[in-house]
Design goal:
The chain is an alpha/beta fold. The protein has helices at about 15, 25-40, 55-65, 80-90, 105-110, 115-135, 150-160, 180-190, 210-220, 240-250, 265-280, 300-305, 335-345, 350-365, 375-385, 430-440, 485-505, 520; strands spanning about 5, 10, 45-50, 70-75, 95-105, 135-140, 165-170, 200-205, 225-230, 260, 390-400, 405-415, 420-425, 445-455, 465-470, 475-480. Helix 2 packs parallel to helix 3 (about 55-65), helix 3 (about 55-65) crosses helix 4 (about 80-90) and helix 8 (about 180-190) runs parallel beside helix 9. It is globular and about 75 Å long. It starts with a strand and ends with a helix. The structure holds 3-methyl-2-oxobutanoic acid and zinc ion.
């Protein structure tokens, strides 16, 4: 068989994924995910949006310094200030890339209030500027799939002439459909002068559930870079899921003769890590990495599977790195068993970390007969939340609840290193606890979501509580698990608040481009 064409995998979990409301990651978590992406063979890692904040800048430059084989890319809006800041961060990489973008559709052109000619001039100047700094420049006409054809071809040609080496065609609002996605790339390659000298990329959002199909269709049309995220993390319904395109190209190589450099056996591990650090659980029936993706419950399926796994499986669990044993953990399990179970679940801990987790595991095993994989995942999520440098910490909580109102909560929070205590009342124990947090740390964030679910079955099950807060359009999520639902609620609320404090400092890529005036910065 002839050699397959190579499709570059561009991962944007740390940029577009992290931009998703509530998915903020800490500095060390970003470094860890970048290392896993590099190790699994991702070609390009979009490490962040350096101008967004000091923290984002530091994360991108540290990822650049530590990079091995992957190209490290940073995002910048179409102005010199963003591009310079991006270059300062990515230049430490062995293979740096600047990615600059501007919204080209009529709706997006109206935001900075530029005429078509003014925008075309801006694209020429900013891409030229980026190319003077870096040999590897990616340019994106945001909302390309809703941009007039004439204007799209005009600006793509300008970007190529100005030195862009990759042209990315974003379907920013997940509007396109597979045939259209393929045709768009095919026509751009056929009709734009200079198109043969650059790589065309596809960047799809999943608003209509077609991101993976649209990305694969774009490859059929000639795109040779797919932009995607682990678990499909991303704004609204998310981005194309990396694991889906990688496995689709692998399993259906007969009709899609393209390969990627991704080691698929690392997919399960990285998926779990991203779910844990982002706080975005993977839906059970998610393709490739969902809990049920390889589970066969019905009698007919189980019978078929026992006779021949291929009856109902088009890939084997081990192809994506799913190799769990059935070791049941309980209060008699030792450190070695815990280490090995955690390894299966994607956590490789240093000895001192294992000791800390072991203490928490023992405490849980005393309260719960069997500690299942989901309990350990929840425990690790809490452990990691506790490892981050947070301004607020729950130190003590006692609630009085029952048939006699009002319920009250006696809460001690550590705030910027100092313990503060209050007793507050409310309509139920959780309301009283949240009121106590608000009294100790007044804030304007609004509770958007409060959700409780049992991690496993039984009355001794841990509850995972998710809290989503909103403040001036910023959204953050906090999660915590405990056999005591009110304790988990307090911790989840405080976790969301801590993330909000970090987010207050950041500028988002899609924020009004008017705030950095074109004339001021070019
Ligand atoms: O969806 C989008 O258009 C983007 C751009 C910044 C590439 O994420
Ligand atoms: Zn996007």
């Amino acid at each position: 068989m002839a050699d397959k064409d190579h499709v570059l995998i561009f991962d944007t979990t740390l940029r577009d994924g992290e931009q998703s409301p509530g998915a903020t990651m800490t500095h060390s978590q970003k470094l860890e995910i970048a290392e896993l992406l590099d190790d699994m063979g991702v070609d390009i890692i979009e490490a962040g949006f350096p101008i967004a904040s000091e923290g984002d800048f530091n994360a991108v430059s540290e990822i650049a310094k530590r990079s091995k084989d992957a190209v490290i890319c940073g995002l910048s809006r179409a102005n010199f200030k963003d591009i310079d800041r991006c270059w300062e961060a990515v230049k430490h990489a062995a293979q740096p890339r600047i990615h600059t973008f501007i919204g080209t559709s009529p709706l997006h052109r109206a935001i900075p209030d530029l005429t078509k000619d003014e925008m075309a001039e801006k694209i020429h100047e900013t891409v030229t500027h980026a190319r003077n700094l870096c040999d590897n420049v990616q340019w994106s006409p945001m909302d390309a799939t809703r941009t007039e054809w004439e204007y799209l071809t005009r600006v793509v040609e300008i970007a190529i002439k100005a030195g862009a080496t990759t042209i990315n065609i974003p379907d920013t609002v997940g509007y396109t459909a597979p045939r259209e996605s393929a045709d768009l790339i095919r026509r751009l390659i056929a009709e734009v002068p200079g198109a043969e000298d650059v790589i065309f990329a596809t960047h799809c959002h999943n608003d209509l559930g077609m991101a993976t199909a649209n990305s694969l269709a774009a490859v059929e049309g000639g795109a040779r870079q797919i932009e995607c995220t682990i678990n499909g993390l991303g704004e609204r319904a998310g981005n194309t899921a990396l694991e889906e395109v990688v496995m689709a190209l692998r399993v259906r190589g007969d009709i899609m003769p393209y390969d990627t450099g991704v080691d698929a056996t690392k997919l399960t591990h990285i998926s779990r890590r991203v779910a844990t650090v982002s706080g975005f659980a993977v839906q059970y029936n998610k393709a490739i990495v969902g809990k049920n993706a390889f589970a066969h419950e019905s009698g007919i399926h189980q019978d078929g599977m026992l006779k021949n796994a291929e009856t109902f499986e088009i890939m084997r669990p081990e192809d994506v790195g799913l190799t769990e044993t059935n070791i049941v953990m309980g209060k008699h399990s030792g450190r070695a068993a815990l280490r090995s179970k955690l390894h299966e679940l994607g956590f490789d801990l240093a000895d001192n970390q294992l000791n800390d987790v072991f203490v928490r595991f023992k405490a849980l095993a005393d309260r719960k007969k069997e500690v299942l994989a989901d309990d350990l995942m929840a425990l690790m999520r809490d452990q990691e939340a506790g490892d981050t440098v947070d301004r607020l910490k729950v130190k003590f909580l006692r609630v009085i609840c029952g048939t006699e109102a009002p319920q009250s909560a006696d809460l001690t929070l550590e705030i910027d290193g100092e313990d503060r205590q209050v007793t507050a009342q409310g309509d139920g124990p959780v309301d009283a606890t949240f009121n106590a947090v608000k009294e100790l740390f007044p804030h304007g964030a609004r509770l958007q979501l409060y959700q409780v679910h049992a991690v496993t079955e039984g009355t001794d099950a841990q509850a995972t509580v998710t809290v989503r807060l909103e403040e001036e359009g910023r959204i953050t999520t906090g999660q915590s698990a405990d056999t005591d639902t009110v304790v988990a609620s307090a911790k989840a609320y405080v976790a969301a608040l801590n993330r909000m404090l970090v987010k207050r400092e950041r500028v988002e890529p899609h924020s009004d481009t008017k705030q950095v005036s074109y004339k001021d910065v070019t």
